[in-house]
């Protein structure tokens, strides 16, 4: 193991020095640009490049907001209890206040003026956006009139979607998420106790069959009209995991752009049927096993944060509490459009630079023949390693090998119950969270936590602070597998 | 002949208002309520009262 140079020994260097020292990445913007990922249709890239939920890359740069204008729902799910509300709780269906369309539009305007990263307004309940359609539509109409550059997006169980497809297209809603948990009505009956459709409550298998037929109809109608469809599936151990690979195959075949397999969030305190009956969520390993069975993973979304129906900000952060109704100004003078346009220009340049740097680093790593390495990354966004270890509330987990860098998942380390515990408890929680991840890259870390992490075999490196994630990972990987001769030169 | 909403249990989702064929349900003050003068219990139009069928909370839209 003598050929492995410990980067942990290096302290923060300037980016140029580091680039030279590690034989990696061109960081200048003169390295050339690319319009979008080479493997994506330009028309689709144009639709997803600013949407943090539809593009893993975009989620490093752009923010979304949900407004909770649609509380009514047409089905009951065993993982949902909309009476529950907690400001510290982060999961779908939870909100702190419900808004009228007028209030929601004012909130969107206030956020747009403050947050230039904002690119998407989504309506995801807390009930069903397509069922509570009048409120959804009124909100979108108001926002579109004032902020035409903000993309509109909605999320639904699909039951009511076929009734509104033409309006969805006419309103330029380019993105629709359908939550489809199973293709088997027998399984559906274990997830949906009832479905309300055409004036009647349908229970059990009958209801689940109606829902499934409408979901497939919605998917086909939207795809036929060029709307990008993301399918969300809640992975419920012992109930629907056996059918998940087939579900993935079918929705892909029907034209879904992305499939997001999410873990069930279940706790008795949530008051949901699953929570109260002890139905557990999947472990990270179980989720990954199902994702891995779904083929090459090209169409899987893995960066979902399962956000609240009133979330505001970058994925993984929630600034909703900054923009509650009582904090909104009466009149909002500017809409921030110029700031957003300037921000988007900056992102375009930054992306080109990031890609060029990653390509250069990729060329270095391409010759390594070694197993892939899992690395945890602390980032505040922008695709850079720019967060202090102690400030990280989640770790983005990447896998790197000679073929390149792949985002695997994120792991949270800010369990909402952690607050109030000591630093030691928090570190233990982080160590648990990072199981199986031998290296962490961050902007800074104190010597004491670094030593504690090293004791359990996790090396925390802050030598590539502010570097692009891909570049740093590829450089790290190439460095670790450099031949002794080449290693000696660098050392 | 009317239904009523058990306010303390109501989540105020408004699904009942969407489904009511008699426009008998509205959000008044701080809660949803059913106008007994307008409510027909959906007699002759649906098999069951629509508010009770769509309500997510058991025993919350009930006969007055």
UniProtKB/TrEMBL annotation, chain A:
<dbReference type="GO" id="GO:0016829">
    <property type="term" value="F:lyase activity"/>
</dbReference>
<keyword id="KW-0535">Nitrogen fixation</keyword>
<dbReference type="InterPro" id="IPR036105">
    <property type="entry name" value="DiNase_FeMo-co_biosyn_sf"/>
</dbReference>
<keyword id="KW-0411">Iron-sulfur</keyword>
<keyword id="KW-0949">S-adenosyl-L-methionine</keyword>
<dbReference type="InterPro" id="IPR003731">
    <property type="entry name" value="Di-Nase_FeMo-co_biosynth"/>
</dbReference>
<comment type="function">
    <text>Involved in the biosynthesis of the iron-molybdenum cofactor (FeMo-co or M-cluster) found in the dinitrogenase enzyme of the nitrogenase complex in nitrogen-fixing microorganisms. NifB catalyzes the crucial step of radical SAM-dependent carbide insertion that occurs concomitant with the insertion of a 9th sulfur and the rearrangement/coupling of two [4Fe-4S] clusters into a [8Fe-9S-C] cluster, the precursor to the M-cluster.</text>
</comment>
<dbReference type="Pfam" id="PF04055">
    <property type="entry name" value="Radical_SAM"/>
</dbReference>
<dbReference type="InterPro" id="IPR034165">
    <property type="entry name" value="NifB_C"/>
</dbReference>
<dbReference type="Pfam" id="PF02579">
    <property type="entry name" value="Nitro_FeMo-Co"/>
</dbReference>
<feature type="domain" description="Radical SAM core">
    <location>
        <begin position="59"/>
        <end position="310"/>
    </location>
</feature>
<keyword id="KW-0408">Iron</keyword>
<protein>
    <recommendedName>
        <fullName>FeMo cofactor biosynthesis protein NifB</fullName>
    </recommendedName>
</protein>
<dbReference type="InterPro" id="IPR058240">
    <property type="entry name" value="rSAM_sf"/>
</dbReference>
<dbReference type="InterPro" id="IPR013785">
    <property type="entry name" value="Aldolase_TIM"/>
</dbReference>
<dbReference type="GO" id="GO:0046872">
    <property type="term" value="F:metal ion binding"/>
</dbReference>
<dbReference type="InterPro" id="IPR000385">
    <property type="entry name" value="MoaA_NifB_PqqE_Fe-S-bd_CS"/>
</dbReference>
<keyword id="KW-0004">4Fe-4S</keyword>
<dbReference type="InterPro" id="IPR007197">
    <property type="entry name" value="rSAM"/>
</dbReference>
<dbReference type="InterPro" id="IPR005980">
    <property type="entry name" value="Nase_CF_NifB"/>
</dbReference>
<comment type="similarity">
    <text>Belongs to the radical SAM superfamily. NifB family.</text>
</comment>
<comment type="pathway">
    <text>Cofactor biosynthesis; Fe-Mo cofactor biosynthesis.</text>
</comment>
UniProtKB/TrEMBL annotation, chain B:
<dbReference type="Pfam" id="PF00037">
    <property type="entry name" value="Fer4"/>
</dbReference>
<keyword id="KW-0813">Transport</keyword>
<protein>
    <submittedName>
        <fullName>4Fe-4S binding protein</fullName>
    </submittedName>
</protein>
<keyword id="KW-0004">4Fe-4S</keyword>
<keyword id="KW-0479">Metal-binding</keyword>
<feature type="domain" description="4Fe-4S ferredoxin-type">
    <location>
        <begin position="1"/>
        <end position="30"/>
    </location>
</feature>
<keyword id="KW-0411">Iron-sulfur</keyword>
<dbReference type="GO" id="GO:0046872">
    <property type="term" value="F:metal ion binding"/>
</dbReference>
<dbReference type="GO" id="GO:0051539">
    <property type="term" value="F:4 iron, 4 sulfur cluster binding"/>
</dbReference>
<keyword id="KW-0408">Iron</keyword>
<keyword id="KW-0249">Electron transport</keyword>
<dbReference type="InterPro" id="IPR017900">
    <property type="entry name" value="4Fe4S_Fe_S_CS"/>
</dbReference>
<dbReference type="InterPro" id="IPR017896">
    <property type="entry name" value="4Fe4S_Fe-S-bd"/>
</dbReference>
